[in-house]
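Box 3.1. Reading complex inputs
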Amino acid sequence: MNCGNGIDTRQVDELYINLDPIQAGGRLTPDAMKAVLAYGDGYSVCDHCTKPFRLDCISKPPLAQFHKDLAEFMHMDVARLVPGARRGFQAVADVAIRPDDPVLLTVYSHYTEFLAVEQAGGRAFEVPADDAGIITADAVASRIEDVIRITGRKPAILFVEQVDYQYGNLHPVAGISKVAHQYDIPVLCNGAYTVGIMEVDGKELGADFLVGSGHKSMAAPAPSGVLATTGEWAEKVFKTTGIKGDITGRTFGVKEIEMMGCTLMGVTSMGMMASFPHVRERVKRYGDEVKHSNLIVDALLSIEGTKVLSEYPRRHTLTRMNTVNSFDTVAKTHKKKGYFLTSALLERGITGILAGSTKVWKYNSYGLTDDQARYVADSFVDIAKKEGLPCVS
Amino acid sequence: MSKRAADAVFQGLYLLTDIRGILRETVPHHRLSAEQRAETEKILGKLEKQISIIREELLP
């Protein structure tokens, strides 16, 4: 069935349990789908845009209130919608980094954080993880000292993930921020895997900037996200334009330079706003999500030779597994080779794991019901038993 | 202008979206609980009403 010329109708989430590591938290709520239907036209939120002509000031639909609600939800002073977390990194990098400034990231930083630093002309220094895959405050302190020794300057800013995309590990951002602030280094906390998934308090984390992803973790269409900051930094990162055309004398009101004026002028902001009441409630049920995550990991660990590469017990739903000594041993002789696992899962109505993976792979169990989580756990064990892998019951 | 027809089209789409939500909640087997069955029945009843309105308004 097509939804346009040559465009298949996407029914992945209507037909399968989807464990895709980056898609789970961005699945739309029915209310967001309704908003998509009603606000799909280009500048659809601009029908009632009046002075001062800026997205965060529009009261019908209630985008002005939504911006305030987002800031409150993240426990920050000011928030702006951005076209994806990456545009939040970019805006912050542009005001916090000058050419040749040293910048601290981590070994788990997303590539878009690196690109934001590169665009601003900064030099990247990474904080290593410890043996458990955690970025510690001590490692940050040690790396700050390294940077000062190497460059003669302190890092202009520190980018740190609250939960990283590689292992789904939860890092001690509050302690890390404390160390950074002792050196007067501002902290950007990347909450792409946490804001909208679990309760996140930017003030408690000591974040100068807290960035969330709408399409990754707030049940919103892509590209969407949120950049929240303190009152102090808001003056810089949300600075308004002062430029004037020399022939026309035109000025541009209160448009914010780093936001390039308005950001999400249609379906993205409306989808995000429609999901928000549900997102605000679902973060309170995060304990159930962690329970499901551990249920599935425990089932996988019952298959002999399987290892979990993420921290364990799990504190997040994004998990990296190593099945070199279990499923991959089957792949060596199976007629479907490495595709046997994802194929067997597909037969059971489960998708989202990279096709052909039997060595190291990731999945995300966010959003599953109790029954679905149990079904996924049982399916992994069932597949293992069927292929003759020993399981500990 | 038929505001009534436009309303019925959107209302119909929203009702179908609620069924889409039920499909997602019940993957992969789409076995509905008693509560979900009752909800689906209710939605379908309302959907039929919206379709009738569209007929009345656009195909008199």
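In summary: Chain A touches chain B at residues 13-17, 27, 29-30, 33-34, 37-38, 348-350, 369, 372, 375 (CB under 8 Å).
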